[in-house]
Amino acid sequence: MIIKKKTKKKKKSYILNKFLLFYFFLTVIFFTISTSIVLKSSTFKKTKVQFLDKISRYGRYNYLYLPQIFFGALKSNFTHFEKLNLEISFDNILIIENLRSESIANGDLPPRHLIPKINLDIIHNGKRYSGDARLKGDRIIHYNKKKNTSYKIELDKNNYLFGIKKFSIQKPVIRNYAYEWIFHELAKEFGVIKLTYKFINLSVNGEDLGLFVLEEGFGKELIEKNNRRNGPIFGLNEDLNYSNIDPVFEIYNKRFWERNENETVALIASQKLRDFFDKKLEVKDVFDLDKWASYFAIIDLTGTWHGALLKSVKFYYNPINGLFEPIPFDGQRFKPNYNKFNLSYDNKLVIDFLKNQKIEGEGKGLGWIKGFFFIN
Question: pTM value?
Answer without folding.
Answer: 0.81
